[in-house]
Amino acid sequence: MTANVSARGPRGVIARLAAAVLCLALVGATKPPAKAPGKTGSTPAAAAAMDTKADIALLVDYATGTTLFEKNAERSFPPASLTKMMTMAVTFREIAEGRLSLDGEFPISEHAWRTGGAPSHTSSMFAPINSKAKIVDLLQGVMIQSANDGAIAIAEGIAGTESAFADLMNRRAKEIGLENSNFTNPTGLPDPANRSTARDLAAIARHLITDYPDLYKFYSQREFTYNKIRQLNRNPLLAEGLGADGVKTGYIKESGYNIVGSAVQNGQRLIVVIGGAATEKERGEDARKLLDWGFRTFESVRLYGAGESIGEAMVFGGTANGVKVAAAKNVDILIPRGNRDKLRARVVYTGPIKAPIAKDQPIGKLVVTRNEQVIQEIPVAAAESIEVGTLRQRAVDGTRELLMGLLRR
């Protein structure tokens, strides 16, 4: 079944028109059509007018996961201190699940002090050797100052050693869907086997923002003082007036200057990744340029609200001939401004659906395309329950299916 939907006019008009067309088109659908060409969440054509100096770049819409711009987004590279986002992903879960408390303390071992503290001449919160630091302070040290001593102290406090903590990082990475990352330490200090991609790093940022909003907010803090030493947040985007509230910078000689940033304007959040920039200035300029371009170029269109009826799927042997279908979440699509008329939607399912049907029973998926390119796929479910029909109703449905089968030959 394929139903094209015009995307002109206000959102309410879009939704009503789409629902009506899909409702008519769904009746009688018996098998899913071939998938439209293109990759879900792929880069819109508008990105052709954009480029960066850095070799690696990615811009993603947070709400939909749509890729707005990409350049070598799957290329593996040393993430440097961007690694610490994964360190926070593990730590945040420990806190959320009650195994750690922000008021708890971890010791600063000699290893943490020498490898990531004052003697290391790397990013540090200058925690004294053999002291104890509150977990809330260690989080701020890592998130604001990129403190290597703080990251090692957290790793040792949770897992005993850096390598054991790295095992937790890799296990968690798989759980949240990372496909091309391997972490060997909690800091991102040079190690040839410590690798990631822009795509995976954006996914970590999205995970932190979605699952741990109360802890993520530390990334927006402009400064932090520890051991009487005041340090500013290393993220240059926070001062650019873009609505940035995170996330992390990184640099080692092997990878160049890197950043993962996120910003919100008018309720729309974008995530940007820059990797391999030649200078600190170039890194900031590329990230700022991509975010500004994304906010200016794209608009969000709501096709359906959560629970809003999209149409009806055909029912066999039930008290009704059709069951209303809906998405569990808002169907928001990000498209280049002025391209609403190129938006199309269809519901794909295998049917008719045999009764009984329970409310919220999975039915199929809503496939949204622009210029025949799939940009979003959303599961749809039954919006109501349908009981088994009478013997007469089932006989009528059986006859109808037989006739339809003959017509399809």
Poorly predicted sequence stretches spanning 5 or more consecutive residues: 1-41
End-to-end span in angstroms? 17 Å
Annotated CATH topology of the largest domain: Beta-lactamase
The SSE order reads HEEHEHEHHHHHEEEEEHEEEEEEEEH
CATH homologous superfamily assignment of the largest domain: DD-peptidase/beta-lactamase superfamily
Q: Counting H and I runs of at least 4 residues, what is the number of helices?
A: 10
The averaged pLDDT comes out at 86
- If you compute it from the alpha carbons, what radius of gyration comes out, rounded to the nearest whole angstrom? 25 Å
Q: Note the overall shape.
A: elongated
Proportion of beta-strand residues:
25-35%
What's the level 1 CATH class of the largest domain?
Answer: Alpha Beta
Keywords: Carboxypeptidase, Cell shape, Cell wall biogenesis/degradation, Hydrolase, Peptidoglycan synthesis, Protease, Signal
Protein name: serine-type D-Ala-D-Ala carboxypeptidase
Family: Belongs to the peptidase S11 family.
EC number: 3.4.16.4
Features:
single chain, about 400 residues, alpha+beta, Peptidoglycan synthesis regulatory factor (PBP3), Domain 2, Beta-lactamase, 6-stranded mixed β-sheet, 5-stranded antiparallel β-sheet, elongated, disordered N terminus, cell shape
